[in-house]
Amino acid sequence: MAGSEEHQSLLGDEGESSTSREPDRPLAAICDPSRLPHRVVVLVFMCFLGFGSYFCYDNPAALQTQVLQDLSLNTESFMQLYAWYSWPNVVLCFFGGFLLDRVFGIRLGTIIFSVFVCVGQIIFATGALVNRFWLMEMGRFVFGIGGESLAVAQNTYAVNWFKGKELNLVFGLQLSMARLGSTVNMNIMGWVYNQVKGLVGKPGYTALGGSLMIASATCLFSLLCALVLAVLDKRAEKILHKEEGKTGEKIQLKDVKDFPFPLWLIFIICVGYYVAIFPFIGLGQVFFIEKFNFSPAEARAVNSIVYIISAPASPLLGFLVDKTGRNVIWVMIAVVTTLAAHMMLAFTFWNPWIAMSVLGVSYSLLACALWPMVAFVVPEHQLGTAYGFMQSIQNLGLALIAMLAGAILDSRGYLVLEVFFCACICIALIAVVMLYFVNYVRGGDLNQSASDRARVLKEATSDAEIKRRPIKLTEGDLARLAPMSAFGLRNRYLSRLGTQLPDHCCTHLSSLAHRSVLK
Amino acid sequence: MAAAVKTLISGVFVILFCLLFGFCQSLFRGDTFKRQVTMELNPGSTGPHLGVNLLHIRAVGRNDTLHFLFCNQGAPTLLLVHTNVSSSIVTVNWTLFLARNTSGSLKIEPESSVLYSTAVVFSRLWEYNDLNDTADPTSGFFPPYELQDFIWSPLNLSDMTALLCGANATSISGSICFQLSVFEMGGRGLSWPHLLHTANSSQVKVWLDGMLPRANNSRFLLELQAVSESYPLSRVEVHQSIDDEYTPSVFKVFQWVSAPNSISDILGFVQWKPVAYRHSNPSLEDAMPCRHSDPHPQNSEAMAASSGVIRAFYSQLKPFGLNVSFGLAGDPFYINTKFLSWTVLVGIGSPPTDSFSPVVITIMAIGLGTPLVLVLLGGMWVCMRKRTMESTMTYEPIN
């Protein structure tokens, strides 16, 4: 957050200089790319750009009972639908930004990814219509190729149009749209299915395919938005003579060997934590019906509460974490409360609204505290690689665990499944505890309070001046300082200088636009 | 600091100890109590018995005996008699028994040793046409299959199980089968729903295989009657269990019990999980929920007439009956697979209750224990490091 504010003020002048250029002939406010009314119009399209993808991502979860029954699937094959979404993103997390910047350009790239989303969803629906499960899996794969990269494109557009202006607000709005898409999907698809069932006359794969086809209308709508955006962006480029937006993401796989130990711990936390959230939400509906005797509508509602809560909670908790610092402690709190929520679901019959609400809050807290930590342990030029790698292994974990979760449920039931999720979170917890001590011993700044960080930043600025002069360290000095490689030193100084943590420190930027963070 | 560490250590040890205790308890809790089980077909029979098979299973404990009697004369019936001596025997007057008109032709001797007896009769199979897929068995009933009129095959005995199959005299294909299993000691059923059993119980698995339904939207109900002299089985209790490890996605256990005063006084029970399966070799998606009606008192004369064993053993009886219906609205109809199986446990004493499996307890213990141990070790190490750092620190930082 702090980074982006700074960013805003730093780049404010630049933005104004480009807008101050008068167009040749006067335009109506709504048509003038340099004026707010026009940007509001663009913002509307920008927000709906991702709506379709978010709406359709959780279609299987929203229609879990119907999918299982109409296609007579077991849970393991059902979870394949989620696994197939994750597979392409194991690779694409590295190349999405590259493709947008170097190969397609933002406009064409956005359209291409929207087409992938749209075609993927249509293949998925067709698969259901003709009762071919492999076709549905293929649809999810194609959908996955587009889905995550589209989110990156959406953010790049936002930066391009709103940098130095209303950027934070725009990010907030996009975030809310994403969550709105997920929530609406969870709560409306059951109704849509029932309507289609009424038309078809009987439940079955035809009704399922029909309702998924209707859902794909949202993707078509998003594609339309992508086309309109491309036209508007092209027009703005001509009028304002500005450049096409770039994600600015650099990925170098050879950096992986330089990743410090705390970063690997952060990866473990990320994988261990998120695999206990997304596959669980995918399987949630039937769980609430079977264990807590909920009606399908109520089960869908309680399943979507995580998304609903995270909409208002994310900015609030983000503010809290920014103001207090001590990220490791916050992550620890988030992991422990999530563990408590899962244990509640596993070992009690308490109303799941309690556990799911706790899960929603702790999930948002984790996103706010965990993702910025990467920026503290990795120098800026490696941030793109680190985030790309993090999301890649997260997707790998999601794909594998989704399949495993389905298999566990089929053979051993919900209790063992929940215990398995608890075990995953326990692994994340072990990693957090280790991270705390490693950070403590190394004197890292992951767990500093915000005021300490500000003080260090101040000192570092003056320190950096001194550092420029070559100083021979005495042996005593060396002994008192923790032994550090040149890499480590640079790393620390770079990350202490506030300007070195710009875009990525703010939880919204480019590579952070992926689903897990956004939701 | 030291005090805090001490309390922390003791806290961790208490938790670990509790987990360990729970673990051991669950490992060794599974009844070590054993019974000596012997099976005997048609006890004391010398002459011809007109295709009637009476299976007597004797399960001898330390100082008591359980007699299971399973018979194909009339409606399939399982009779359980609990005696307080290990030498009680069954005597059958075969002439009277086959005539099916007097009580007392089947006796447990010595009679004074009988503590409790109960019988379960599978009396009817109902079929209804669920036109609107509401799974509400109130209308559309076909005439029920009277199981006493079915033609029953001889009992097919194998190790600790007996199989009884029968078919409607008029039907062309398909059958209804009952498989009785008895147990020497506690354990779990081998196939779903993996019911937990003790040496004091027996398991009956009922299945319909290939019987043609009379309508495309047919669903079935099975009528059960429970008989006993005193303390009839008059109440169905539902137990919620968080543990669905052995029967995935089923969180309830129903037990139909005799209800004298309190739970501890339960004399006999019929226990089942509300799940039936649509395939002979089922997986999770073949599971189908069941419901049951409340138990109602039944006509004792009609009851006795329908089952040979009941007539022969009981002179006065208090039968209660209930229906178990298979499938809820939206579940596939019987015609899709033409198979339906359901399992029930019949026993004396308190019904067995599930507890966490060692796998669950081990995972939770390791999962929760490791971070605690790490916090503990890390905390101690940091304390020690601090102390040594303090003692070796020779100068302060310049600023």
UniProtKB/TrEMBL annotation, chain A:
GO MF term set: transmembrane transporter activity
Region (Disordered) residue spans: 1-25
Transmembrane segments: 40-62, 82-100, 112-135, 205-232, 263-289, 301-321, 328-347, 353-377, 389-409, 415-438
InterPro entries: MFS, MFS_dom, MFS_trans_sf, MFSD1
A GO cellular component entry from the record: lysosomal membrane
Membrane topology: Multi-pass membrane protein
Localization terms from the record: Lysosome membrane
Keywords: Lysosome, Membrane, Transmembrane, Transmembrane helix, Transport
Catalytic activity: L-lysyl-L-alpha-amino acid(out) = L-lysyl-L-alpha-amino acid(in); L-histidyl-glycine(out) = L-histidyl-glycine(in); L-alanyl-L-lysine(out) = L-alanyl-L-lysine(in); L-arginyl-L-alpha-amino acid(out) = L-arginyl-L-alpha-amino acid(in)
Domain Major facilitator superfamily (MFS) profile: 39-442
Pfam family, one: MFS_1
Function: Lysosomal dipeptide uniporter that selectively exports lysine, arginine or histidine-containing dipeptides with a net positive charge from the lysosome lumen into the cytosol. Could play a role in a specific type of protein O-glycosylation indirectly regulating macrophages migration and tissue invasion. Also essential for liver homeostasis.
Family: Belongs to the major facilitator superfamily.
Oligomer and partners: Homodimer. Interacts with lysosomal protein GLMP (via lumenal domain); the interaction starts while both proteins are still in the endoplasmic reticulum and is required for stabilization of MFSD1 in lysosomes but has no direct effect on its targeting to lysosomes or transporter activity.
PANTHER family: MAJOR FACILITATOR SUPERFAMILY DOMAIN-CONTAINING PROTEIN 1 (PTHR23512:SF3)
Name of the protein described by the UniProt record: Lysosomal dipeptide transporter MFSD1
Gene behind the chain: mfsd1
From TrEMBL, chain B:
Subcellular location: Lysosome membrane
Membrane topology: Single-pass type I membrane protein
Assembly mode: Interacts (via lumenal domain) with lysosomal protein MFSD1; the interaction starts while both proteins are still in the endoplasmic reticulum and is required for stabilization of MFSD1 in lysosomes but has no direct effect on its targeting to lysosomes or transporter activity.
Role played: Required to protect lysosomal transporter MFSD1 from lysosomal proteolysis and for MFSD1 lysosomal localization.
InterPro entries: NCU-G1 (IPR029382)
GO cellular component, one term: lysosomal membrane
Name of protein: Glycosylated lysosomal membrane protein isoform X1
Pfam families reported in the protein's UniProt record: NCU-G1
Family membership: Belongs to the GLMP family.
Alphabetic keyword roster: Glycoprotein, Lysosome, Membrane, Signal, Transmembrane, Transmembrane helix
Gene (UniProt): glmp
Transmembrane domains' residue ranges: 359-383
